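User: structure tokens for this one?
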Amino acid sequence: MNGSIDTKASGIGMLFDSLNLSKLNIPSIRISDILDILIVAIFIYIIMNWIRETRAWSLFKGIMVILVLSILSFNLNLYTTYWIIEQTFSVGIMAILILFQPEFRKGLEQIGKGSLRRSIFTSSSQEKIIPEKILDEILTACFIMGKAKTGAIIVVEQKVALGDFEESGIPIDAIVTNQLLINIFEDKTPLHDGAVLIRNNRIKRATCILPLTQSEIGLDLGTRHRASVGASEVSDAYIFVVSEETGAVSIAHNGKLHRNLTRLQIEEMFKQQEKQSVKKINIWKGRG
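Assistant:
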């Protein structure tokens, strides 16, 4: 019995000797390597999170399909298919930059408007919430104008400064009241055409020009709704829209249009976002 044990022990010893672990070149991990990996991981996470919120998500899925086809065609010796895919990629990069220029611009603006901490630990819904009194005045004006089928666009600035929009408007600098908003958008008045910009709970500008979205939002929607979505794609503003045709009240935010909302639905929406914002802040501070 002892002899068999000794034989096994000597066999294991020979195995380790043959492996010669002492001569294996195992690289040491430095703090800089960990930091490098962490930065790359955070960068990929931010890019993926941004892509999912834009129409570039469809483009990304298409690219993944083409990459899979490229790998399969290379391994299966499908030379013609592989050549076509390779040529498409070489020309397609420039086309992608041109077609998706608004999305790339939005991505750069999002990087500039928020820190890495906010991008990782919070969602895009954590912005300055509209004060209850200001929201009440805006909603009162919107639904009064909706009954009269008076078209309107009201932009409430959040953390992203809307200097480009502001420059196209006429200065007002007044307290937000439903009477003033209704008067501004009254048909055939000098200030009715364009959007109203609200900043720091004051009406700053009227007749502001907003960029039109290039996304498909529905054939039944006109320039007013396309402008509201376009402005929400390049900022974090809340944009209230009143349809001149139907009188319906909608909200554009983060590139999405929430259509035909009731006053109760809008109030509930902002209450939920307020709760989410407070919860995320408490989690970051270690109180949740």
